[in-house]
Design brief:
single chain; 584 residues; alpha/beta; Enzyme I, Chain A, domain 2; 3 domains; 25 helices; binds phosphoenolpyruvate; binds magnesium ion
């Protein structure tokens, strides 16, 4: 059986099923609505006290940041709009408090579940968790008793709430498996912090596993085996020893500098979509935000976000990142990302169409508003601005003109902003790569967007699974372009990063180090592994390896060559260890 691995490591143990049972909430018409309002308020107060206790105990156990979730749960119980909705329902319909609460929270949960952004969608779990607590209090149903937990338990549940996860005695939990949940659910985040292997998204698993069954759970691949045979047990026990070693090693990378054995320093940053993603970035010791996909602020809404709304979001990220660099990419809408309120025609080839900077220069007002919001936020941190999908010098020069207009406006209005903000472009079209020597004279940095650069170089739609064999980050054509971009940037004296998926690929990181790439921006969970790789290689050796890949004929040859050099039997790329040992 395979689910989604959200916290790496292997757990082997006996199943412990958490079945909180469904609460049967009946609609009862009441005579005394005043009494129901009192019951609601008492339960809300008790729940707040419980959450505050949980907050304090989690601070002791896991730390302030991890405990914050219970503070935000407490705040949900203080949300005036929500509480008035419940009260109004009790009064208007003359119903019992638990029914009114459950109906109202279900409506909120539905609303969150329809949001496209994964992080926000998964916040519906938090509402469920908090409301479940209040309803149980009102109905006098006890919460789950965790005291029966034995050593090496594999927790199996339909859903694990953050409160469940925080209350578990982690010394007794070998792994966790759930039917619901996603990569960024709080249960998954807490599991990663606690270092508990976890697999989510396994439908009906609570029916398939019985209490006491032996279970193997692989939190990296998402594989779950119920009652394994002797051969499987032997294999996974061996794999567990190895994975435990690796994960310990990776966690130990936090706080260490990202520098190769021969002293080449790089920056390992995170890609984010919404301000909340900063949690994960900091959790994984990101040295900055290398790509803030600002278009997420524009998506899933009826109207364009105002300058103030945007300003608040940029400011939040900048404040939370402190001195660390935050690269905000200006609106990259179009292609596969649409917003209903902008003038976006239906196109035959949307990826080759009216998107990103092309759309911004066609809607200067939208562009200038965004730039004003970024400029205003600039005083709160270390912001850099990056323009996506540049394919001509004129686009870059026109973009800089709009930026200057936005600055002039703010100056006239007496609004403060930093004047020395670095401006960069994404190199994600072949034309930009080819004229990167010229572009480099006009900007402070480049960031290579391999996701698009591959599709445009290979002439293959990045979403077309039929052609995925052509969409490869190992193709020598792409690697040659990247080498040229890096060289042109350095010749002009500017730094160059990469924020496409290839930046987090353990097999390619050594190649890009060999080419001299200065910054790697990737999904947060990949950062510590990247640091491990960087810290265990010599740039000088990687230069030779990078050069060899450029002479190869095809992607497969490159990939096999790099697998052979770097990937261990789990494709974890820890063979670099051996390279270091050989040199010492
Ligand atoms: C890219 O194209 O590599 C990139 C990072 O941008 P996006 O994936 O958002 O198009
Ligand atoms: Mg792109």
């Amino acid at each position: 059986m395979r689910g989604l691995g959200v916290s790496p490591g292997i757990g082997i143990g006996k199943a412990f099923i958490i079945d909180r049972g469904l609460i049967d909430i009946k609609k009862i018409l009441v005579d005394d609505v005043g009494k129901e309002l009192d019951r609601l308020m008492t339960a809300l107060e008790t729940a707040k006290t419980q959450l505050n206790d949980l907050y304090n105990s989690t601070i002791d156990e896991l730390g302030e940041k991890e405990a914050q979730i219970f503070k935000s749960h407490e705040m949900m119980l203080e949300d005036d709009t929500f509480i008035s909705d419940v009260k109004n329902k009790i009064i208007a319909e003359g119903v019992n408090a638990e029914f009114a609460l459950s109906e109202t929270s279900n409506a909120y949960i539905k609303m969150f579940q329809n949001i496209e952004n994964e992080y926000l969608r998964e916040r519906s779990e938090d509402i469920r968790d908090v409301m479940d607590r209040v309803i149980r209090l009102m109905m006098g149903i006890n919460s789950f008793d965790y005291s029966a937990l034995e050593n090496n338990s594999i927790i199996v549940a339909k859903d694990l709430t953050p409160s469940d996860t925080a209350q578990l005695d982690r010394t007794k939990v070998a792994a966790m498996i759930t039917e619901m949940g996603g990569k960024t659910s709080h249960a998954a985040i807490i599991a990663r912090i606690m270092g508990i292997p976890t697999v989510v998204g396994l439908n009906n698993i609570t029916d398939k596993i019985k209490p006491g069954d032996t279970v193997i759970c692989d939190g990296r691949t998402g594989k779950v085996i119920i009652n394994p045979n002797a051969k499987q047990l032997f294999f996974y026990n061996k794999k567990k020893i190895r994975e435990d070693e690796i994960n310990k090693e990776l966690r130990n990378q936090a706080g260490l500098p990202s520098v190769t054995l021969d002293g080449f320093k790089v920056n390992l940053s995170a890609n984010i979509g919404v301000p909340n993603d900063v949690d994960m970035a900091l959790e994984n010791d990101a040295e900055g935000i290398g790509l803030f996909r600002s278009e997420f602020i524009f998506m899933n809404r009826e109207h364009q976000p105002t300058e103030d709304e945007q300003f608040e979001q940029y400011k939040e990220v900048l404040v939370r990142m402190g001195d660390k660099p935050v690269i905000i990419r200006t609106l990259d809408i179009g292609g596969d990302k649409c917003v209903p309120y902008l003038d976006m025609p239906k196109e035959m080839n949307p990826f080759l169409g009216y998107r990103a900077i092309r759309l911004c220069l066609g809607n200067v007002e939208v562009f200038r508003t965004q730039l004003r919001a970024i400029l205003r936020a600039s005083v709160y941190g270390n912001v850099k601005i990056m323009i996506p999908m540049i394919s001509t010098m004129k686009e870059l020069k026109d973009s800089k003109k709009v930026l200057q207009q936005a600055k002039d406006e703010l100056l006239r209005e007496g609004i403060k902003f930093k004047d020395d903000i670095e401006i960069g472009v994404m190199i994600e079209t072949p034309s930009a790569a080819i004229i990167s020597d010229l572009l480099a004279k006009e900007v402070d940095f480049f960031s290579i967007g391999t996701n698009d650069l591959i599709q445009y170089t290979m002439a293959v739609d990045r979403l077309n699974s039929k052609l995925s064999y052509l969409y490869s980050q190992y193709h020598p054509a792409l690697l040659r372009l990247i080498k040229g971009i890096i060289d042109n940037a350095h010749k002009a004296g500017i730094w160059v990063g990469m924020c496409g998926e290839a930046a987090g690929d353990p097999k390619l990181i050594p190649v890009f180090i060999g080419m001299g790439l200065d910054e790697f921006s990737m999904n947060s969970p990949s950062i510590l592994r990247a640091r491990y790789i960087v810290r265990n290689i010599n740039k000088k050796d990687m230069e030779i390896i990078a050069k060899s890949t450029l002479d190869m004929e095809n992607a497969l040859e490159v990939e096999e060559y790099l697998s052979c050099l770097f990937a261990d039997e789990n494709e974890n790329c820890l063979k670099t260890c051996k390279i270091r040992r050989r040199q010492q």
